[in-house]
Design brief:
Layout: H1 17-82, H2 107-110, E1 115-119, E2 122-130, E3 135-136, H3 145-158, H4 165-173, H5 186-189, H6 209-212, H7 217-223, E4 227-228, E5 237-238, H8 244-250, H9 256-264, H10 272-278, E6 289-290, E7 295-304, E8 307-317, E9 324-332
Parallel strand pairs: 3-4, 5-6
Antiparallel strand pairs: 1-2, 2-7, 7-8, 8-9
Length: 342
């Protein structure tokens, strides 16, 4: 009997038409899902790129509007100089300080008013402040530093601050390393939490007082509107624009009620002699008084298409030619909310 080898037969199953259609459908769905995911990513990236470009362009536009606001202030101050009636005096009742017609007669108390320029895309707010009405901290580096040291002490006392801060400031701006009685030189500043040396030179900005003295931030905010650091070593306070605390520091024998009445009055003195004739208590400080100013601070806030740009500039106006030039400028763009979508 012959034995035949056993063979295994493999049956091949043929896919039906309906099954093939199902596989094709799944493949198409996978491809569509992949394409959709890629398209969504591309659209998202495109939206981010468009938003970034828009923010960049609007930010630049806001900055140029702010610079235009600075130029507006220059024109206003030059127009004030061109007017022969206001060329030799500066008061808080003039158009550069109060652009609205018929300014309130209490403007001397309220300070300068903003110029608001409105446009289709936003607005620009310009405020011009007279730095001549503030206490020049660099006056302690000048020829009359001893007298001005006493005046700065009185100014600090007017804000309930320690008057010895003035001594530390004197050591900061004088040109030597000699330590004054209550002052601070390199030895003291190098022991600070953030060690530094004394400048021993006139200040470039009033904020240097935060380095020179242990002045608290909240005290700085109160004092800042009444002090400045001008590029000269003299004190020339404009009596037509100065605040109550600055005027009080120049006349120690004047009672607070008299200083307050002076600030709230219509101050349009055309000469220092006229002022001291009406207020003899300022006779001892006549050399520190003025009725016109050369230095102004311009604060511009431009809000254009949701972007904000701020500029703070210090301008010098030549009393002979009226020419205005920027001696320093600080630019800032305040934080903003992130815009959603395109």
């Amino acid at each position: 009997m012959t034995c035949r080898p056993r063979t295994t037969q493999t049956r091949t199953r043929t896919m039906t038409i309906s099954e093939a259609r199902g596989v094709a459908l799944v493949s198409v769905l996978l491809i569509v899902a992949l394409v959709a995911a890629l398209a969504w990513r591309m659209i998202t990236q495109h939206q981010l790129a468009v938003a970034h470009t828009r923010h960049f362009l609007h930010g630049g536009q806001a900055r140029h509007y702010a610079l235009a606001g600075e130029e507006y202030a220059r024109l206003a101050l030059f127009a004030d100089w061109e007017d022969e009636e206001t060329r030799t005096i500066d008061t808080l009742l003039e158009p550069w300080a109060h652009p609205q017609a018929g300014a309130s007669r209490g403007a001397g108390k309220a300070g300068p008013a903003p110029h608001t320029l409105r446009f289709t895309d936003g607005e620009v707010v310009v405020t011009i402040s007279d730095l001549g009405g503030r206490f020049n901290l660099n006056a302690l580096a000048g020829a009359d530093s001893a007298e001005n040291l006493v005046r700065l002490r009185r100014l600090l006392e007017g804000f309930d601050l320690d008057p010895v801060l003035a001594d530390a400031w004197l050591d900061w701006v004088d040109d030597d390393a000699e330590l004054h009685e209550f002052g601070a030189e390199d030895g003291e500043h190098l022991l600070a939490d953030e060690p530094h040396r004394a400048a021993n030179a006139p200040a470039a900005d009033a904020s240097e007082i935060l380095l020179a003295t242990p002045l608290a931030a909240e005290d700085w905010r109160r004092l800042h509107p009444h002090i400045t650091a001008l590029p000269r070593g003299q004190l020339a306070v404009n009596v037509n624009t100065a605040g109550e605390e600055v005027l009080a520091s120049l006349a120690p024998n004047l009672v607070p009620a008299e200083v307050r009445a002076l600030v709230e009055s219509e101050r349009e003195f055309d000469s220092v002699e006229t002022f001291t004739a009406d207020h003899p208590a300022y006779g001892a400080s006549v050399g520190t008084l003025a009725v016109a100013s050369e230095f102004f601070e311009v604060h511009v806030r431009a809000d254009i298409l949701g972007r904000v740009s701020e500029i703070v500039s210090t301008l010098h106006r030549d009393p002979t030619t009226g020419e205005l030039r920027v001696i320093r400028r600080r630019e800032d763009s305040p934080p903003r909310q992130v815009e959603q979508g395109p």
